[in-house]
What we know:
The complex is a heterodimer of chains A (about 350) and B (about 110).
Chain A: H1 15-22, H2 37-44, H3 49-71, H4 78-90, H5 92-101, H6 109-122, H7 127-139, H8 158-164, H9 170-182, H10 188-193, H11 199-222, H12 227-231, H13 235-238, H14 241-251, H15 261-264, H16 272-278, H17 284-289, H18 298-305, H19 316-332
Helix pairs in contact in A: 3-4, 5-6, 9-11
Chain B: E1 6-10, E2 18-24, E3 27-33, E4 39-43, E5 57-59, E6 62-64, E7 71-73, E8 90-91, E9 93-96, E10 99-102
Amino acid sequence: MPVEITKRDYSLTGRDTKLAEERGLANAQWFTCNISRQRLKELMQRRDGPAIRDTLVWFALLIISGTLGYLTWGTWWALPCFVAYGTLYGSTSDSRWHEPGHRTAFKTVWMDDALYEIASFMVFRESVPWRWSHTRHHTDTIIVGRDPEIAVPRPADLLGLALDFFALRRAPKELVRMVQHCFGQLTPAEATYIPVEERHKVYRNARIYILIYATVITWAIAIHSILPLMYVGLPSLYGSWLMVVFGLTQHAGLAEDVLDHRLNTRTVYMNPIFRYLYWEMNYHTEHHMFPIVPYHALGKLHQELKADMPKPYNGLWEAYREIIPTIFRQAKDPTYFVRRPLPDPAQPVPSLEPA
Amino acid sequence: MNDTWIEVCGSGDIEKEDVIRFDHDGRTFAIYRTADDSYHATDGLCTHAYVHLSGGFVMGHIIECPKHNGRFDFTTGQAKGAPACVDLKTYPVKVDAGKVFLNPSG
């Protein structure tokens, strides 16, 4: 018997927005696992060292791969060089955008803010709108009509997801918004989460981004070569595939409209190289439950909480064995989702109603 | 300013560089102790999303909200950047005979 498609309204100003508010899902109280204040204080401690080290290594890798790409330009050897450069530029910038966005990567605030601005540009996200978008994502994680960062709305758009691997769905929308911002306009959705006093920064930064892109395009035209764009602009597209591979593991296929991050967020064990590239965001359930804990302490936080958590996924392979069939099924049946089994509770399973 | 002082807790009940929640008369406050043993008080809820600041992180004179990482200088109440855009209200605190007192009328 064919399944009836029930299409929900994922906009932030539509039917499901009102419904989420009426159901008490907006700005609600979320479940958190028990952890002693003393231990949490230890884990919240900020340090500059790990992020300075990781950032220097990241920039060094960008410079090395970019230089090799320049030296081998015109040969097939340039291909792996630009795959490496683009991936570091267009995918690793996602985690370097994310952690400083929370101002938890460094102890020193200006370092967080500087890296946030640089990484925002690289990952092709305007820094101010995306800071507020991500704030809303943490307030109302995967609440339909409230969360602007739901990666796989149902029914799943398989073609759109395929395009996402090279930012071909996201980037044109982002560019249109950027131009809108240059003219001093926000979208209706942005107007719901960007405060009035922050909006002048949106318009200013959009003009800076456009100016940089216009300069690079002009340079490429002047020298009759695509090479400048291989370093700035295009890597946000051709290098974004790994960001999608990592990013889909966060919430794709899991429950909507619940107030327990254990039910709508995954923790996936990853090898040290992936954890470096992703800045430990594989511990995503822990991050959502305690966003105040810096990335370099998330592994320790995971150890503290894991008895109260669903079983983590043992690598990307295990996660995608669940995600891929789920997304294919959600393309036809938008009511389907993965139900994460919670452990026998050391504390009661929370009510899904807001406190 | 009303000169009514409310007993909050013993001065040792708050750890150094930490914060506790104090509820009084239908209101909620955050009471802070710095590393050099000065005590401060603000409204208990973050001005951004109304989350209890007592779950947050104290660094020097800064309190960071546990939910969205908004920061305030709790000695002045000043918001220190997005998503904290509106200042916190601060309240006088005094320590007398090993007890912390709050003047909730500000």
